[in-house]
């Protein structure tokens, strides 16, 4: 099955590294024009270089998606660069480790703003353009942490991702009349730079039935399907991509 995105326009947030970079690269390889929205100009420039060297089409916006104004700016930059918007891909997230009893207001607020509030802001800004698209899609990177599992020191992150899943379902219901589908991907343990905060990779992989950490490309390919024309009858859903980590009732079965 060919998942062709030729001629479609995508805004990918958090696309400077890791999962977001993989999403942007794979979407561009399938023919999409991609607006890269990321906090780091250096990492964003590297993603831009990789896409263009592979023959893809992309533009870069350096932006911190912690405010409504920044979300509006990202959508406006996409419309300005490519003249429309078909695919809104919200992947940007922050997850600083901090125990609940010591959690500072600024950490809580920034986590909720980037991870959860941006879902609202980006959707509101993008909706007029999405309603003009032939196959409009919103796809959000959620997580198994929060909706299904917990990690000490990440209560703020868990709450934000549980909220993301609630947003996906409610937004899917509201936007169905506009033909906009809203779905998400829940990554498990993925081999990214941020994974260094959680421990040694071999130890983490040992508890996963497939015996490896996921790759950013594993998540990007799931995103590609949900963004494709072929996924047009799927909405309000999240797809778990975790190598089977959530399957065992007890770790003795892995």
TrEMBL record:
Name of a matching Pfam family: adh_short_C2
SMART domains linked: PKS_KR (SM00822)
Boundaries of every Ketoreductase domain copy: 8-188
Enzyme class, UniProt record, top EC level: oxidoreductase
InterPro entries: KR_dom, NAD(P)-bd_dom_sf, Sc_DH/Rdtase_CS, SDR_fam
GO molecular function: 3-oxoacyl-[acyl-carrier-protein] reductase (NADPH) activity
Documented EC number(s): 1.-.-.-, 1.1.1.100
Keywords tagged on the record: Oxidoreductase
Family: Belongs to the short-chain dehydrogenases/reductases (SDR) family.
Protein name: Oxidoreductase TM
Organism (species): Pseudomonas chlororaphis
